[in-house]
Amino acid sequence: MNVTFNRDVLAGQWKQVRGKAKQTWGKLTDNDLDRISGRFEELAGLIQQRYGYTKEKAEQEVEHFIEKIHMK
């Protein structure tokens, strides 16, 4: 799936999917989720920081999350 499209989907649907993001990445706080407002790079950066992932692994996690929510 197109990466730019995925990032647009995340930003556009953030209010609807932020609860799912919190379920997926429980180490993220409500404040974190409010602050990033669905911005792909910020979400990946927080996941990288909180979970100790590489940048690539964090981006893959977010891409997988977007694909999963987009398919529903």
The fold-level CATH name is Protein Yjbj, Chain: A
Secondary-structure content class: mainly alpha
Say how many strands there are. Answer: 0
Count of the separate structural domains:
1
Instruction: Give me the Rg, rounded.
Output: 11 Å
Q: Characterize the biggest β-sheet.
A: none
Which superfamily, in CATH terms, is the homologous superfamily?
YjbJ
Helix content: over 70%
The CATH top-level class label:
Mainly Alpha
Unreliably modeled segments: none
β-strand amount = under 5%
Write down the secondary-structure element order.
Answer: HHHHH
**Structural shape:** globular
CATH architectural grouping: Orthogonal Bundle
Count of DSSP-assigned helices: 5
First-residue to last-residue Cα separation: 15 Å
Could you give a quick summary of the protein structure above?
By secondary structure, the chain is mainly alpha-helical. The chain contains 5 helices and no strands.
How would you portray this structure in words?
The chain is mostly helical and 72 residues long. It has one domain (3-71): YjbJ (Protein Yjbj, Chain: A). Helix content is 79%, strand content 0%. It contains five helices and no strands. It has helices at residues 3-12, 14-24, 30-36, 40-51, 55-71.
Write the layout of secondary structure elements.
Elements: H1 3-12, H2 14-24, H3 30-36, H4 40-51, H5 55-71
Helix pairs in contact: 1-5, 4-5
Notable characteristics:
single chain; globular; 72 residues; Protein Yjbj, Chain: A; mainly alpha
